[in-house]
Design the sequence.
């Protein structure tokens, strides 16, 4: 059983798809399928794997080399999760030593388009976010200083 998954199929959740986008309709229970899927695909390692596999299929060692800071164990778990969710296809070639390639499935390719839009938004707004962070840090430091006095 995968870490963080339930033994039974997840609970279907009303995400407001039929009624327009309304976060109040999101089911925040831990067993919610939508929540489980978002938790899986929105983690940093999954995002990086999906982005890299959009370019071409890669071997495990290539992925590990390209993703700075990922451990072998975490990359293995991430790839297994993505394969289980139908986003990544694993192909084992019958050679010695065994060669394993990973590539996006059509479902994974469709998710990459959404991830790319998120990355583009982040790039477009990184200066505004940096300014907001600096402003927040100044206010927080001033509040700490005032509380200490």
Sequence:
């Amino acid at each position: 059983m995968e870490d963080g998954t339930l033994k039974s199929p997840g609970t279907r959740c009303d995400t407001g798809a039929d009624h327009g986008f309304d976060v109040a309709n999101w089911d925040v229970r831990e067993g919610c399928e939508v929540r489980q899927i978002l938790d899986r695909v929105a983690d940093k390692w999954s995002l990086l794997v999906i982005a890299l596999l959009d370019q071409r299929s890669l071997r495990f060692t290539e992925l590990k080399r390209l993703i700075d800071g990922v451990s072998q164990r975490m990359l293995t778990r991430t790839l297994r999760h993505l394969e289980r969710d139908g986003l990544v296809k694993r192909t084992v070639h019958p050679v010695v030593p065994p060669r394993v390639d990973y590539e996006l499935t059509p479902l994974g390719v469709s998710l990459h388009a959404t991830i790319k839009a998120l990355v583009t938004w982040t790039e477009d707004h990184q200066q505004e976010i940096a300014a907001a962070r600096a402003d927040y840090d100044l206010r927080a430091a001033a509040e700490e200083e005032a509380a200490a006095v």
